[in-house]
Amino acid sequence: MALLESIAFALFAIVTLGSSLGVVLARDVWHSALMLGVALLSVAVYYVMLRAEFIAAMQILVYVGGVLILITFAIMLTEKDTQSDEVAT
């Protein structure tokens, strides 16, 4: 059983590191926000592995649910609308 837990931990460690690099290296803000969601979900998996299910649920509700939705609305509200600029000229 310990071998399977070690393999799962290594797999999610790779997912966490890859998505964290994706947050930093992505040129598009939307893709960066999606990668942040993947990184935060993989951190919640670590809490489940530590048998802290309540903290994992709060990680998903607060960070993935709240912060990621806030970032999504900020991206949508501050994005420049190029189509209306072309029509106006």
From TrEMBL:
The keyword Transmembrane applies. Gene3D superfamilies: NADH-ubiquinone/plastoquinone oxidoreductase chain 6, subunit NuoJ. Keywords: Membrane, Oxidoreductase, Transmembrane, Transmembrane helix. PANTHER family: NADH-UBIQUINONE OXIDOREDUCTASE CHAIN 6 (PTHR33269). The chain crosses the membrane at residues 6-26, 33-50, 56-77. This is NADH dehydrogenase subunit J. It holds the Pfam family Oxidored_q3. It comes from the Archaea. Its EC number is 1.6.5.3. One of its GO terms (molecular function) is NADH dehydrogenase (ubiquinone) activity.
